[in-house]
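Sample 3 of the quickstart, ligand zinc ion:
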Amino acid sequence: MAVPKRRHSKTRRNKRRGQWKISAPTTVACSHCGEPKRLHRICPHCGHYKGEEVLLVKS
Ligand SMILES: [Zn+2]
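Result:
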């Protein structure tokens, strides 16, 4: 199996890790209440999914 010949420097490792960033999850407007919700998830605001109420939300 191939083995790395030289260890990469801390600078090189840190530069690589400095590339990744956190991104906000994709949201769409709920078709029932219009609130932003995650894709393919039950709306946390009104409990609707695909035009049906599937979850009772305490308000
Ligand atoms: Zn909703």
